[in-house]
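Structure (tokenized):
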């Protein structure tokens, strides 16, 4: 098999180092955010609906004349998407730190947040 790539060891090594650094930084930051989200999730009551209600109350409290009411189905779906994305990131962090995680699609919930 012939080597035809223009890349050589030095370039590949530098690229690999850059990518490793970026992924590690992202995983560490994602785990920090996951832990913060867990705190808020537990404080809210530990359910998607409870988290949506907390976010709804915080959102309306910022308005000039706050309304009363309940979160919409869309707000609950957004809270569920947030939880799923953060759990996916947490599981990637766990897998990277040699914690056994179940095999599943983690990119789909993360893509919903983009």
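Design, position by position:
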């Amino acid at each position: 098999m012939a080597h035809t790539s223009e890349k050589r060891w030095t370039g590949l090594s530098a690229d690999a180092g850059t990518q490793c650094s970026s992924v590690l930084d992202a995983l560490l930051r994602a785990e920090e955010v996951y832990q913060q989200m867990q705190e808020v999730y537990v404080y809210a009551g530990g359910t998607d609906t409870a988290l949506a209600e907390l976010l709804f109350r915080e959102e309306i409290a910022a308005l000039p004349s706050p309304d009363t009411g309940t979160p919409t189905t869309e707000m609950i779906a957004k809270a569920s998407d947030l939880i799923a994305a953060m759990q996916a990131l947490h599981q990637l962090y766990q897998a990277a730190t040699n914690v056994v995680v179940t095999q599943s699609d983690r990119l789909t919930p993360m893509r919903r947040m983009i």
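Reviewer-requested clarification: The chain has a mean pLDDT of 86. The radius of gyration is 20 Å.
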